[in-house]
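Dear support,

I submitted the protein below through the web form. The confirmation email said the job was done, but the results page showed an empty box. After a refresh the structure appeared. I'm attaching both so you can tell me whether what I see now is the final result or a partial one.
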Amino acid sequence: MKLDILRSARPVPYREALIRQRELHAQRVTGQIPDTLWLLEHPPVITTGIRPNQEKNILINPEHVGVELVQTERGGELTYHGPGQLVGYLFVAIENYGYKVKRFVQRLEETFISYLAEAYGIHARHDSEYRGVWVGMEKITAIGIALRQRVTHHGFAFNVNTNLAHYNWIVPCGIVDRGVTSLEKLLGAPADMDAVAEEVAMAFRSALGYDTG
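What the results page shows now:
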């Protein structure tokens, strides 16, 4: 099995990436491309999921801080994307591998949990109440997947060198009693984004059973 990896060198504006996501999703549905993981960063943006009444969790006027607010069709609630955060959009025909969306999300969580332990000695975990990957009571990776025509889109947001102060703009995922963290915060120094992207790509290939050669 093959997983193509795409990596954008520059931050991609969210609306531009959303158009490209739809193109890649359509190409995967019609079999023009194999399963694909697109790794990138965004300029600062706040995105909403499909749950109603999320505006109450926006704590600032987005125009006043120069951040976009974009509505999406992914699962979950409000989240933040910005420079230093590794975003991964997945276009995977998950039924080919016997996955349902819930199990696929759990597999993504397990991939990050294993990666953080093996690469950095960081003990991350699932949470029985909330989706994502957690270190203690702080989320390091948010996950929001949508499934259309048997192919996934949207994906994950992994805080590598993210400006965590920007999370003060929102109540992330509507969770009021938890925090967020990053690889930089846990290591005490910035991480190499290109190296992390390469490591994450390899971790996904291995964990999901794709060819690693």
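Response: this is the final, complete result; the empty box was a page-load delay. Strands lie at 3-7, 35-40, 45-48, 68-71, 79-81, 85-91, 133-135, 138-148, 151-159, 179-180.
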